[in-house]
Design goal:
The chain is about 85% helix and about 0% strand. The protein is built from eight helices and no strands. The protein starts with a helix and ends with a helix. The model has no long low-confidence stretch (mean pLDDT about 80).
């Protein structure tokens, strides 16, 4: 499997779980016309990609210069990522979350920024998962990998907007539950990979 494909699959698993970020996009597609729905999707893509790049290169750079920290993050991060995946598999998406889309453009942009960049869970998860993957790769592979992650973010948010606009009458909690289960399974596998990378360092 190519590094781009690995990044794309992890990127999908990382962005697909239904949280507040996705609720903005889903609700916008449910209640807005296509132009407004895609506006929300592209704003979300921008902030999601910027966070992914910061987590990947920022935490990855720190770990590259500190072997002990790298080992600790690979081990602790790998275990944490496995539990994140398990929690997603067990979770039940909430379609009733309150997402206020009747805001001025500036406030709407800030709200999407807040649920992405000011979300401690997203910052921690992104740093452990993406930073850990960066630390486990050679630079040439990392470039293809993060390109896959970025492509996945764009594909997911624009894709889910398009799907809901076309099929909003059949979109259900059961479908969202399936997304979380698949995403959780992929994330568990990547968490195991981080732990294996740690074992490769010490054995």
């Amino acid at each position: 499997m190519s590094f781009f494909t690995q990044g794309f699959l992890l990127g999908l698993a990382y962005v697909a779980p239904i949280g507040m970020q996705n609720m903005f996009v889903i609700n916008a597609a449910m209640v807005k016309r296509p132009f407004g729905a895609y506006q929300v999707a592209f704003i979300t893509v921008f902030f999601d990609i910027s966070l992914a790049l910061a987590a990947f290169f920022g935490m990855g750079l720190i770990m590259a210069g500190a072997p002990l920290l790298k080992g600790g993050i690979l081990l602790v991060g790998g275990i944490a990522v496995v539990f994140i995946g398990i929690s997603l598999i067990r979770s039940t998406p909430d379609l009733g979350g309150e997402v206020d889309l009747k805001q001025s453009p500036g406030r709407l942009i800030f709200a999407i920024f807040a649920v992405t960049w000011l979300n401690p869970q997203a910052l921690i998860d992104g740093s452990l998962l993406l930073g850990g993957m960066k630390a486990a790769m050679v630079p040439e592979a990392a470039r293809f990998f993060i390109t896959g992650v970025v492509t996945a973010s764009f594909t997911w948010f624009v894709g889910i907007t398009t799907v809901i606009l076309l099929f909003k009458n059949i979109f259900s909690k059961k479908i969202l539950r399936g997304i979380n289960v698949i995403s959780g399974g992929v994330i568990v596998l990547y968490g195991i990979r981080l732990v294996v990378s740690f074992l490769g360092m010490v054995l």
